[in-house]
Amino acid sequence: MPKRSAGILLYRVVSEVCEVFLVHPGGPFFQAKDQGVWSIPKGEYAPADDPLAAARREFEEETGFTPPSGEWLPLGEVRLASGKIVTAWALKGDIDAAAIRSNTFELEWPPRSGRLQSFPEVDRAAWFTLANAAGRIHPAQRAFLERLQPFAARL
To answer: How far apart are CA 18 and CA 5, in angstroms?
Structure first.
């Protein structure tokens, strides 16, 4: 059974332009990478868990913000190259990307040093237009941007 993650694609409209909120993975492996590594705030959940509840929990863990209330737009699923399945919902809202507070993880760093270091799961967040987000988001997650587009056209 493949691993499953759930997440939220937060969006807002500024001067009649749709923008989406993406997060950059923390830790030493992604520090110097930009294109194709950003993501929607998301995380794994157990088979018995409710995916939407998991998406809400993971959003809060990765950003420090409670997801805003509003209409949840299902964006379906995508399968990553690893086989993991990601389910997402779009939600209209606005948060301060510079004020995120992410949970942390421990990693032996440098490798084989025997020293554990703590890193934020998300080291930064930003708002992007749909066109700019397409170049930065993980390639498999671009489908979520494409699925948001018809809704964005009506905003």
So the answer is: 25
Helix (H, G, I), strand (E, B) or coil at 45: strand
- The count of other CB atoms within 10 Å of the CB of residue 99 is 10
**Does residue 77 sit within a domain?**
yes
What range defines the domain where residue 65 resides? 4-24+32-100+123-153
Half-sphere exposure of 103 (CA within 13 A, CB side): 10
Whether 37 and 25 have beta carbons less than 8 Å apart is answered as yes
Q: Confidence class of residue 1 from pLDDT cuts 50, 70 and 90? A: confident
pTM value? 0.94
DSSP type of residue 70: S
Beta bridge partners of 58: none
The pLDDT mean for the chain works out to 95
Are 149 and 42 in contact, with CB atoms under 8 Å apart? no
Q: Answer yes or no: is 107 within a domain.
A: no
- Category of 97 on φ-ψ map: left (φ > 0), alpha (ψ -120 to 50) or beta: alpha
CA atoms of 30 and 44, how far apart (whole Å): 19
